[in-house]
Amino acid sequence: DVEQLTKDPKNWAMQSGNMANHRYSELKQITSKNAKNLQVAWTFSTGVLRGHEGGPLVIGDTMYIHSPFPNKVFAIALEDQSIRWKYEPKQDPTVIPVMCCDTVNRGVAYANGKIFLQQADTTLVALDAKTGAELWKNKVGDPKIGETTTNTPHVFKDKILTGISGGEFGVRGRVTAHDMNTGKVLWKAFSTGPDNEMIVDPAKTMTWTDGKMAPIGPDSSLKSWKGDQWKLGGGTTWGWYSYDPATNLVYYGTGNPSTWNPRQRPGDNKWSMTIFARDLDTGMAKWVYQMTPHDEWDYDGVNEMILADIKVKGTQRKALVHFDRNGFAYTLDRVSGELLVAEKFDPKVNWATHVDMKSGRPQVVAKYSTDKNGPDFNSKGICPSALGTKDQQPATYSRKTGLFYVPTNHVCMDYEPFQIEYTAGQPYVGSTLSMYAAPNSHGGLGNFIAWDAGTGKIVWSKPEKFSVWSGALSTAGDVVFYGTLEGHIKAVDHNGKELWKFKTPSGIIGNVHTWEYKGKQYIGVLSGIGGWAGIGLAAGLTKGTEGLGAVGGYKDLAKYTELGGVLTVFALPDR
User: Fold this and answer.
1) Phi, psi at 96, each rounded to 5°
2) d(Cα 472, Cα 496) in Å, to the nearest integer?
3) Spatial separation of the C-alpha atoms in residues 327 and 334, rounded to whole Å
4) Among residues of the chain, what percentage have pLDDT more than 70?
5) Alpha carbon distance 330, 319 (integer Å)
6) Has residue 550 got a pLDDT over 90?
7) Which of 92, 155, 195, 257 is the most buried (most CB within 10 A)?
8) 243, 19 in Cβ contact below 8 A?
9) What distance in Å separates the CA atoms of residue 82 and residue 425, rounded to the nearest whole number?
10) Which helix (H) or strand (E) holds 371?
């Protein structure tokens, strides 16, 4: 039923609004003319500190709110904001040290009267949506070897898809499909390794090469790694997935290869850093596209795939649009996998000059190649940093304007790899970083941009003091919303003009969402500083997890925000 629920804009039934990851709402009570009048309607505290990513779901008269570790879930009555039920799992806190980038969770899923939660300790739980009672549990990973789960479960048709986190611990990435009613594993597809374990057909799974689609061939992954390094290969799957019912294909991205020291893993390291298109029922990959072969900079490829029917260079296409950490925005044909557009969505990107449209490969600048420069050499001035031009914070596609509105980072780095040995459950990073605002620019650490995916061009760009680590929302009322690390939720019109802002209790890394109840449109967002961008403040540290680096300028956040997890809800005043 969730597919039908997403078609009614009164609900917010999926984390991304719909299965295509649009984060767009047809609601238009709040407009570019009256947004300036928005005021707080109510608030709710989760009682948990640290980073609050993702956001609540709204189904009819009930809201479902999640928290970071220990991953509480609350069912809230919209009528009076009372708690209908609360679920608080018992988890071993030893999972916290193997959560690379804060104790975040990106939200619950709903379908057929059930709430689905991926706990940090890799337990997938189904709860009764009316009572909160546990219906079933299934363990999908092993925290003792660094595996955790931070992404939202994705419900498509009768299946729940789960990912895995832990690329900085040598985890081998995969996606697992479960039966909705029992949790039983239906198929499991790894990112790296033998063809049968990746569920690929060497003769039928296609990729872009030499200006056309061609079969990947046998042992495509194994041939791209040295020895058994693929077993520690990373390629984790903790981002956002999308689904096209017309093709029955599910789309997602895989993360960085392990380690961050590229000299220890020669080759293209397939299929890390890759967009996968898989048949939902069988798991078989129809096509793949690797964005950053032999990643040398931690340009994790897990960001959302937005499915939109748009004109690309004058021709109508069934497109997939992806804003990658590496700083390039890609437009592909989502049916065939053909590469259509690949352009920088921040002009400061310098690690590659461009993407060769015939081979599909980025053209790396030798000065910024951490592999060519080698271990124990500090490669300076690489743009973007490992935070990427955009991390997991999801963009929005407005079906009204045809534009994509994108929260971005504007951060560069120095990167020094070093030799590291693998120990299960211990960080397997192999590099130290220093990150800072892009030089010779506006001085801030972020931008909020509008993007034309058909031409690969920035339409407008709005500078921000800090990285924009919040998921955006666009509406039929000609308003686009996003949050900032210093704690403001902002509304801009489709030309980027700021209409309104409000200071919430903490920094915002949550995703803005909207719904309607009893004839009134509401806007909501979780605040609670954290995530990679804010972990230093959230954890009371001066830098992030060992090896991941500190971002210069983020310590200034302490001036703006306190810790805390609060949902703030806004509406127009009653007449």
Assistant:
1) -60, -45
2) 13
3) 20
4) 96
5) 10
6) no
7) 257
8) yes
9) 41
10) helix 370-373
